[in-house]
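Can anyone check this?
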Amino acid sequence: MSLFPIFLKLDGRPCLVVGAGTIGQGKIRSLVAASAKVLVVAPHATAAVAEWARSGIITWEPRVFDPSDLDHVVLVVAATNSRAANEIIFRQAQQRKILCNAVDDPEHCDFYYPAVVKRGDLQVAISTGGHSPALAQRLRRELQDQFGAEYAGWLAQLGRKRQQLFASDIDPEGRRSLLHDLASRRAFELAEAGNRRKEKIS
């Protein structure tokens, strides 16, 4: 099966997570990090999830799932400790044409959570189509070593330079060439060498 790789803008959009145990907590955290408007439905929750609810970061309703919970949401994660319950949630979401992920059940997923390396706005996402999350996690660890924390600051610099170039009168082909030069490995190494010299001086 061929998957369509995509990065979703969820800022302010309503998302549902059913289940608030350890696994659900991780899924909730990732949605909160994407600035989604998160509703959690679960009879019980971890201490962290309960604290997020008390702080107003999420909404938690301590009860079992009801199909009406799917009203107006754009995405749902079924993260209960029951595979059968997760499948029911998935079927209900399918009927409403809402994307759903039933945790650890690839057959009942419209999308998979990738293993992600995040450095500021730089995100490298790895998917194995649900075949081997362990492989995705190993590749993530390797990429974490390859792309260090310094990439976050460098990417921010690239963004500022890109805005400056688009505001200038340079011709599109020349701009394109400059943007690729700025994003090259050599440009990164030169920028890092400059940063190290500044640190020594300071």
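Reply from J.R.: I decoded it. The CA atoms of residues 116 and 125 lie 4 Å apart.
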